[in-house]
Each structure stands twice: as C-alpha cells, then as structure tokens.
Sequence to fold (348 residues):
Amino acid sequence: MTFTAKQIAAFLKGEIVGNPEVEVSNFSKIEEGKAGTITFLANPKYTPYIYKTEADIVLVNNDFEPEKPIRATLIKVPNAYAALASLMEMVNKSIPRKSGIDTMSFVAPTAKIGEQVYVGTFAYIGDYVEIGDDSKIYPQSYIGENVKIGKNTIIYPGVKIYHGCAIGDNCIIHSGAVIGADGFGFSKEEEVYHKIPQLGNVLIEDDVEIGANTAIDRAVMGSTVIRRGVKLDNLIQIAHNCEIGEHTAMAAQVGIAGSTKIGENCVFGGQVGIGGHITIGKNSRIGAQSGIISNTEEGSEVIGSPAMPVKSFFRSSILLPKLPDMYRQLNALEKELLELKKKLAAGD
Fold:
C-alpha cells in the first residue's frame, strides 16, 4: 500500500516541508532509511542521521530546524513518535483480519462465541466460555471452562488461560503467557509442605497488553487484578492476589510477590523485584534491578537493592569505587593510632 506525503500529512494534520507528492510504502529506522520508506526523528541523538538518511519522508517535531540541507521531505507534527504510532496503527487496521472457526479446533457446545471471532487450528475452547465479537484465538491456545473474553481481544498462539478467569475488551496476550495458574501457596507442617487450594481467579480489565511468557497467578480467594490500560513486557511474574493499578507499565523480568498492591501510572524497569504484602504508591518510578521490601509513597523515584531515592543512589554510586582505597586508608590510620597509643603509654 502506497501513500504520498500529502496524504500522510492530511491524516496527521502535519505541515509538509518538501515534495508533497513523494510516495512511500513502508517504514524504516532513520539510521537504516531506504528509498520508498517513511521514518521519524524524536530522540535528538539521532539528529545526524536525518542529513544522510535515504528515507523519502521523515516525521519531525514542530520545533525541529535543520542546520543544513535535507534530501527527504519533512512532515512537522507536535509529537513525531506519537504520530508514527498513529500512522502504524492506521496501516495495521487495513490488514485483512482472520475470522471463522477452524475445523481442527475444539469448541465446547456450551461455549458462546461472538460475531467475526477467529479460532485457529488446535485451539481449545472449554465449557461455558464466552468470547466477544471480533476477538482472535490463535492456534494451540487453551481457554479453560467459564473463562470470559471481551470484544476485540487477541490471544496469540500457545496462550493458556485457566478456568474462571476474565479478560476485558481490546486486550492483547502474547504467546506463551499463562493466566490463572495456581499461586505459590503452601503451609509448612514440620518438614512437609501442604498445598493451599487456590480458589480465586485472574481479572484483566480492558486495554491491557501482556507480553510473551508472562505468568499471572490466580488468587487464593477473590481475584488477582490487572487494571485497565496496564502494559506488561515479556517474562514477568505476578503472584496471587496482587493488584496492578491502571496504566502501569513494567519492563521484562519484573517479579511481584503475593498480595502486593501497585498504584496507577507506575513505571517499573527491567528485573525489579517487589516483596509481598506491600503497597507501591501511584505515579512511582522504580529503576531497573531495584529490590523493594517496604511500602513506597506516591510519586516515589527509587533505584537499587534495597531501593533508595534516586539522588541518594547516585551519590552512593560515586563512593563505591573509592571504598577499597578508603578501607586501606582506614587500616593505616588504625595502625598509626595504635602506635601512637603505645608511645604515649610508654612515656607514662
């Protein structure tokens, strides 16, 4: 599918600088731009590439002013990155969508399947499942009994959703994710661990995206809850009875222990570990590889393990390389002090 700069600018409500009739049919990164593609410039460190990219159209922010001639046609918009996302979403929606139930899938007679739903080869849809209109269940997915899936939700290949869980509208769950497995619940009696039945479920609200091989455990009782708009990366573990607040985002390999409550609009870097039965205040920012063992206040910005305020962490980081020298100096001072005490004692 081919678009002119004029058509793209009209869609984005942007300003053209250059040839409005130039055509593109694909996207590219600015440093790898090729003829016939559109790219973007949002991060200033990539500015040198705009003067040599082979891409024919570049989306730039309104305040961008070139320092030398640029071959490509520019389209100025308020936010180049957001404009690119809108453009890619428009192209994505134009791709033909799968629908229909493959003859080699299994759909229980008691399941309720909405209109324009796709169920792929070897997918399993259990008893009393409800799937909303325009949703897609890709091959080799497992949807357990009494699961409810909303409208326009995508379940990619190999996803496993255990019984009784609920998924909202406009969600995306990527391959290998497991929703509703038992939480890590055991009681120890002498040397023996006794399993505690996990009788709750997982509730995922609308507009949530869950990355590949992420696991969200069902609650002991009640629900493990993922609120509206949450974005989870690959390889994340969310334990039983947790609650993740609206529009919170987590990078890969975050691990959250049981019964922890995460506020809305939080951001977690990769490999963050959160202890159990604590509360993370809304609008918190948790740096990569942080370890959180106690409650954080609203708007906290912490990093490190155990975590500390960002400014304190960086001050401490400056001191760490100096610790070996400081240790040697301390030992030397201690020896000098002992020698001085001996001399003073001898003089007495």
